[in-house]
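A favour between colleagues. Tell me how you read the following sequence-structure pair.

===
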Amino acid sequence: MSLLVKAQRSKRQLQHITPQNAGWRYIGFDVWMLKKGETLDFDSGEREFCLVLVAGLASVKTRTADFPGLGGRMSPFERTPPWSVYIPPGETVSVTADADLELALCSAPGCGDLPARVITPGEVNVEHRGKGRNQRTVHNILPDTQPANSLLVVEVYTDEGATSSWPAHKHDTSLPGKETQLEETYYHRFDPPQGFAFQRVYTDDRSLDVCMAPYNQDVVMVPRGYHPVAAIAGYNSYYLNVMAGPDRKWLFSWEADHAWINSEGYPRP
């Protein structure tokens, strides 16, 4: 199966990734494009969800909670943190678009011991990482420091012509205190929207070694291995990451050949 999932732009549901069609165990990822006034209803079942308002306005109701009037940014490239909603297992959910809405449904196995809650932009930690041509801005929507059962959710901005998810790192092996096993998806957006990026997914032994060119609203799946991204000159990059695995902790290993990018030797004079 290809690791690049093309957007179905002629449909309301742009993306539909499940553990079954992805061939892995944890992550589900959907993107819906709703017109103002349209409603999306679903049951969370045995999974927890993080609903991310990538762009637009919405009201969300569950069996136990009512969250009206959510949203603020009308494009992810406003670079303000998003509004999001955490949904536990065993819930019925109804999302109504209060304006045209780009909605990401991030999911993973859950155990139902947490309440539904809104994650406001003010609760999202904003980080600026890297240096030289390897800088990015990170919005930690649902990090491992905040309550959830399996999910980790983050969005990343990379300026045109720069790299991110770099130096190459991986999180595919359970090494207590050093590395956790996490599947990952990248939902790509570009400004201007006709842009694309390059993303490579590869392992040390090169048993997996794939280079892809995701376009706007495409998804790259990372079942294992390293997964750097290079933004093309002229096109700013945004991606929404979902991670999940047996241990809800983001611990990773750098690829030894490229770890020097983190040192005082970069940028080179």
User: Anything to note?
Assistant: The helical segments are 19-22.
